């Protein structure tokens, strides 16, 4: 089953929550977060890491030591830098964050996910990276900004699902004709989420609330 979790990041800006949340992440991710200069970037990486750990625990796995009833696994990088789970070949994941939200996708097949917020539209991006049918779709759309987000997140999720990184130019494929398929949600308000994978049409989308749910999500550590 493909599951996608997203959450608002602003609760993590509180110093108490931020500091204790770090304890729920493996050392490598904590070090990555600490290297960011700006609080916004640290919270985005932290939020994505929390969603990753939560999604794993719901499936009986964890990246940490000593978690009851969960099997510890690790993350390794593939040929083009896409992360995979070591010790859990039947599960794939992908992360993304933008603005005040983070998202994590899980599937038994290869998966890519992307989230973007309104305000990204640029004609220069369209000219450089969009195919002709994507430009036509944009021209015909009633809401140009929303249509732009749909196409952009579809392209990003497709590249991430294939795991080829920048080796696959954005203008070399159309997101409107892609295989594997791509599904898009106009959620949360002002954002767009797209996921690419063979099982996305049966995907379930969940919104988590860090402020309200941290205790039950992470075994009362708070």
In sequence order, what are the helices and strands, one letter per element? EHHHEEEEEEEHHHEEEH
What structural category arises from helix and sheet content? Answer: alpha+beta
Rounded to an integer in angstroms, the radius of gyration calculated over CA atoms is 18 Å
Helix content bin: 25-40%
Report the total helices.
Answer: 7
- As residue ranges, the low-confidence spans are none
Molecular shape: globular
Strand order of the largest sheet: 6-7-1-11
CA-CA gap between termini: 30 Å
The count of strands amounts to 11
Global mean pLDDT = 89
Estimate the strand proportion: 15-25%
Largest sheet data: 4 strands, mixed
Structure notes:
It is a single chain. The protein has 222 residues and is α+β, with helices and mostly antiparallel strands. The chain has helices at 15-22, 27-35, 39-58, 123-129, 132-140, 144-162, 210-217, and strands at residues 3-8, 61-62, 71-72, 74-77, 83-86, 92-98, 101-107, 112-117, 182-185, 191-196, 204-208. Helix 2 packs antiparallel against helix 3 and helix 5 runs antiparallel to helix 6 (144-162). The protein is globular. It starts with a strand and ends in a 5-residue tail after the last helix.
Gist of the model:
This protein has helices at residues 15-22, 27-35, 39-58, 123-129, 132-140, 144-162, 210-217, and strands at residues 3-8, 61-62, 71-72, 74-77, 83-86, 92-98, 101-107, 112-117, 182-185, 191-196, 204-208.
List the topology elements.
Blueprint: E1 3-8, H1 15-22, H2 27-35, H3 39-58, E2 61-62, E3 71-72, E4 74-77, E5 83-86, E6 92-98, E7 101-107, E8 112-117, H4 123-129, H5 132-140, H6 144-162, E9 182-185, E10 191-196, E11 204-208, H7 210-217
Parallel strand pairs: 1-11, 2-3
Antiparallel strand pairs: 1-7, 4-5, 6-7, 8-10, 9-10
Helix pairs in contact: 2-3, 5-6
